[in-house]
Amino acid sequence: MNAIEVEHLSKIFKVQKSRAGLKGALQDLFSRQYNEVPAVNDISFSIPSGEICGYIGENGAGKSTTIKMLTGILVPTSGKLNVGGYVPHEEREKFVRNIGVVFGQRSQLWWDIGVIESFGLLRKVYGVPEQDYKRRLDELVQRLDLGDLLSRPVRKLSLGQRMRCELVAALLHNPSIVFLDEPTIGLDIIVKTEIREFLKDMNRQYGTTILLTTHDLQDIEALCSRVIMLDEGRIIYDGGLDTLKTRWGQGTRITFQFGTACPLPKLQALTSDLAVSWTADNDLHAEVLVSSDLNVSDVLAKVVGQPEITITDIKITETTTDEIVRQIYQTGSAQNNASDGQVV
C-alpha cells in the first residue's frame, strides 16, 4: 500500500513583471503583466507505507513547493495527489490528523510560552485524548532528552534544543506520515546524529512513512534507501542510493605511499589485466582508480604482494553521495542516462 501517490503534479506561479521607469511604474498600477514560472513540472512518484525517502535538489528545484502541496498548504495547478487516503487541499481538517510536519526554518511552537504549554495547545488542535497524549509525550520526552526544557520559553532554547522540541510537536498525535523539510539545518554533528537515530527508531517501531528534504546528504545516507532527485521542477532520478553510487560513482580511489621508488609503468604492468587507471605525482606516490565492478582487494593483492615494492602507507577513499550528486547536477548526466526507467 502506498502512503503517498503523485500523478503528473505541477505548480505554476504567476510573477509580476515590473516595467522600467516612472511611466512603467504608473502602467503597472493599472495594467499588470505577469510571467508564469513553473516551480514543479509534471512529476509523478509513489512512496510505500513505512519507507524513508530522500527528496533532494538544488535551491529552487521545487522541493519545498512539492512538500507544501503534499501537506495541503498549496493547491496544485494540475495533477493528482493522494496522501494517506486524502486529497490534502480538499480534505485538510481530516488530513492533518494523519501527518506530521517539520520545517527547519519555521516553528510551530509559540515563541513566548513554555514548551510544555505549546505541546498542550497542539494536543487540543489535533484532538488527542489526554491519556494518549501523556503516554506519547512521556515517550518522546524521554527519547529526545527534553525533561529539563519543558518549562522554558521557546525563545530561550538553542537551535538544537528547539529542533528536538519541533520533532515532538510534529509527532504528538502519532502521525503515520511525516514530512521533514531541512530538519537538521544549522545543527552541530552531535544533535544531527541524535535526530537521525531517533527517526530511524521511530520508523522501525511504528512503520512511520518519512519524506525528507535536505541539503545535507549525510542525512540521506544515514536514513534513506531511496532518493528522488529534482532539477528545475522535474524528477531526474528516482531509485536506490546503491544504484546511484553504482551508476555514477567514480569507484574507489587507492592512494599508495612507497618507501622506495616504484615507477608508474611498473604499477600499470602489474594491473594490466584489470580495468583500473593509475596516476602518479612521482615515483614515491601513486593513485589508482578502481571501477565499482571490481574488488579493491584484487587490486591491492597485485601491488602489496610484490616483495620488491615497499609500501609505507595506503589510503582507500570511496566516492561520496555528495560528490555523485554534485557531478550529476554539473554535467546533467542523469538526464542523459534514462535507459533503465529509474531516471526520468
State mean pLDDT (0 to 100 scale).
86
CATH superfamily of the largest domain: P-loop containing nucleotide triphosphate hydrolases
- Bulk shape: globular
- Total of domains: 2
Low-confidence stretches: 335-341
**Gyration radius, rounded:** 26 Å
Question: Widest sheet: strand order?
Answer: 5-6-7-3-8-9
Number of helices: 12
Name the helicity range: 25-40%
Brief account:
The chain is an alpha/beta fold and 344 residues long.
Task: Describe the overall structure.
With 344 residues, this protein is α/β, with parallel strands linked by helices. It folds into two domains: 2-246, P-loop containing nucleotide triphosphate hydrolases (Rossmann fold, 3-Layer(aba) Sandwich); 251-318, Alpha-Beta Plaits (2-Layer Sandwich). The protein is built from twelve helices and 13 strands. Strands 5-6-7-3-8-9 form a six-stranded mixed β-sheet, sandwiched between helices. A four-stranded antiparallel β-sheet has the order 11-12-10-13, with helices on one face. The chain has a three-stranded antiparallel β-sheet with strand order 2-1-4. β6, α7 and β7 (209-213) form a beta-alpha-beta unit. It is globular. Residues 335-341 have low confidence and may be disordered.
